[in-house]
Design goal:
By secondary structure, this protein is α/β, with parallel strands linked by helices. Helices cover about 25% and strands about 30% of the residues. The protein has two domains: about 1-200, Formyl transferase, N-terminal domain (Rossmann fold); about 205-295, Formyl transferase, C-terminal domain (Methionyl-tRNA Fmet Formyltransferase, Chain A, domain 2). The chain has helices at about 15-20, 45-55, 65-75, 90-95, 120-125, 160-185, 215-225, 290-295, and strands spanning about 1-5, 25-30, 35, 40-45, 60, 80-85, 100-105, 115, 130-135, 145-155, 200, 230-235, 240-250, 260-265, 270, 275-285, 290.
């Protein structure tokens, strides 16, 4: 099939590669280049870099709905448009261009976790499984008819980062299967209906500010879900401290949340609203990420001191 691929971040790249391996990708559409790093040099989106490896024409519209860009897509006359984490909502004019429609690879088991941050939110909310859903896009936000699903378990120590890497590979595999069914006419379209759903909002750095009045279970999931970005953090003696890994342990009654209950050779035990957290890997502002055991070799923390404001 003649395919136009629309995507932007690392997550999209394995799907683009899988589609390149099985179909004729006639164009790639991605977000405009952005300044990156301290020098603010312009950087290509990962999808653009992959397209350039194969000499595939790349389009980077500021707004995909601009009439001039819509005309370009119409003139290209694709059989299908594949969309994975593109970053813009597509108008009806684009959705109606391809013979087989616009097919999206979404990183959740729809209809649950529609929205921009499904990978992290399933970890934060303590879900047991997640996956990829392919769907034929409509004008709503992740509301189109579902075609196929692939489900994987969420491991006990799963992070947003490890789950991201699993799902981006799964997305490519499932998209190839879906395109094959579309081409053969065997694809089955299932409406999402009006059942239970959950909006997975976009992540921001403020989400990582740990509220120790919450339970240790909730905080531990937040730490994993926001690892590696935007990361969970607190303050220690006025300095920001990121927490990368923690375990839920027994706490004490009548102790203020955020209080350091115990400092062992390998961890810092902190009281929460329910139970306590054993901090296993941390990073103080200006320092490297390290195991708590290594951190404590050069930093003294008093039992009874408090984390956070």
């Amino acid at each position: 099939m003649k395919v136009i691929f629309m995507g932007t971040p690392d997550f999209s790249v394995p799907t683009l590669q899988a589609v390149i391996d099985h179909h004729d990708v006639i164009a790639v559409v991605t977000q405009p280049d952005k300044p990156k790093g301290r020098g603010k040099a312009m950087a290509f989106p990962p999808v653009k870099e992959k397209a350039m490896e194969y000499g595939i024409p790349v389009y980077q519209p500021v707004k995909a709905r601009d009439p001039e860009f819509v005309k370009i897509l119409k003139d290209l006359a694709p059989d299908v448009i594949v969309v994975v984490a593109f970053g813009q909502i597509l108008p009806k004019e684009i959705l109606e261009i391809p013979k087989y429609g616009c097919i999206n690879g979404h990183a959740s088991i729809l209809p649950m976790y529609r929205g921009a941050g499904p990978v992290q939110w399933v970890v934060i909310n303590g879900e047991q499984e997640t996956g990829i859903t392919t769907m034929r896009m409509d004008e709503g936000l992740d509301t189109g008819d579902m075609i196929e699903k692939a489900v994987i378990p969420i491991e006990p120590k799963e992070t947003g980062g490890t789950l991201h890497d699993k799902l981006m590979v799964l997305s490519g595999e499932l998209m190839v299967s879906t395109l094959e069914k579309l081409e053969k006419g065997t694809a089955v379209f299932t409406p999402q209906g009006d059942g239970k759903t959950c909006y997975a909002s976009m992540l921001d750095k403020k989400m990582g500010d740990i509220d120790f009045t919450k339970s240790a279970v909730e905080i531990e999931r937040l730490i994993r879900g926001l690892n590696p970005w935007p990361s969970a953090y607190t303050t220690l003696n006025g300095k920001t401290m990121k927490i990368w890994d923690a375990d839920v342990v027994a706490g004490k009654e009548g102790v203020l949340p955020g209080t350091v209950l115990e400092v062992t050779k390998k961890s810092i035990i902190v009281q929460t609203g329910k139970d306590a957290l054993s901090l296993n890997e941390i990073q103080l502002a200006g320092k490297k990420r390290m195991k708590t055991e290594a951190f404590l070799l050069g930093y003294h923390i008093e039992t009874g001191s408090r984390l956070g404001d």
